[in-house]
Amino acid sequence: MFFDEAYSGRKFIMADKSYEEGDIVLFGMPMDFTVSFRPGSRFGPNRIREASIGLEEYSVYLDRHLEELAVHDAGDMLLPFGNAARSIDMIEQFADQLLSDGKFPVGLGGEHLVTWPIIRSMFKKYEDLAVIHIDAHADLREQYEGEVLSHSTPIRKACELIGPEHVYSFGIRSGMREEFQYAEESGMHMSKFEVAEPLKRVLPSLSGRNVYVTIDIDVLDPAFAPGTGTAEAGGISSKELLEAIHLIAGSDVHVVGCDLVEVAPAYDPSEQTSIAASKFIREMLLGFKK
């Protein structure tokens, strides 16, 4: 069992279809077992859902309404607390099920390690998979303090699985010197500091490709998103992240799934991070599922 069958928490706004009816399945991955600084992102998915009640169902950016979509909110996965390896296996198995059933997955984290099993699942179906990664941190470590299953490692794992030349990172402004050396030497694409402008240059080369999009909320400056585990000064604004999402949505890439991770509500009593995240999810739902 992946989910609590008795789950009755708040659903994301207008995500009211049954699993059978839904083309899109939104699901939470409440895992923060490997974080190295501030825990609490396991509470992110439900807070994003709660914040979504304040959204309009209509996007003025995309001229689309959530009523045009068929979205099922599966709730949060029942992950074994503290067991990262088993949790990763469960997430991959559920992603396998979604893809087998023809669903479009939209994941809510949780720490960034939860993206890794979804990429593994995606690569089994899409051999030409590319990954667009928007984040403050490189996440290219092989291990952190001896632990290979770490929120600092998912993009390195993705590079090793699908080939570094198929991984595109944007907004990066933090990491070890060795991570940036790996990015330069391996052939992956890394854009430091900025997101929208380098995306404009890269997206034409991904035309027609199957692309998975993963967004870490800490790509935003802490002024816009204080509610995250590893805040990093010098980031982009909410407006710039919206522009990036809309650039992807308006391109010829074939987005096959997406996630948004690392919302940690305890560090933001104003809830501005969750409110922003819920809007990004709305735009991803309306923009990425063609």
Structural class: alpha/beta
Q: How much of the sequence is in beta strands? A: 15-25%
Shape: globular
Helical run tally: 8
The oligomeric state is single chain
Name the CATH superfamily assignment. Answer: Ureohydrolase domain
Portion of residues within helices: 25-40%
- Under CATH at level 1, the class stands as Alpha Beta
Low-confidence spans: none
Count the beta strands: 10
In angstroms, what separates the terminal alpha carbons? 30 Å
| Biggest β-sheet strands, sense, barrel | 8 strands, parallel
Gyration radius, in Å: 17 Å
CATH topology: Arginase, Chain A
Mean residue pLDDT: 95
CATH architecture: 3-Layer(aba) Sandwich
Spatial ordering of strands, largest sheet: 4-1-5-10-9-6-7-8
Secondary-structure element sequence? EHEEEHEHEHEHEHEHEH
Describe this structure as you would to a colleague.
- This protein has one domain: Ureohydrolase domain (Arginase, Chain A).
- 31% of the residues lie in helices and 18% in strands.
- It has helices spanning 44-51, 84-100, 115-125, 154-162, 177-186, 196-202, 238-249, 272-288, and strands at residues 24-29, 58-59, 64-65, 71-76, 104-109, 130-134, 167-172, 189-192, 210-216, 254-261.
- It has an 8-stranded parallel beta sheet, with helices on both faces.
- Helix 2 packs parallel to helix 3 and helix 7 runs parallel beside helix 8 (272-288).
- The longest helix has 17 residues, at 84-100.
- The protein is globular, with a radius of gyration of 17 Å.
- The model has no long low-confidence stretch (mean pLDDT 95).
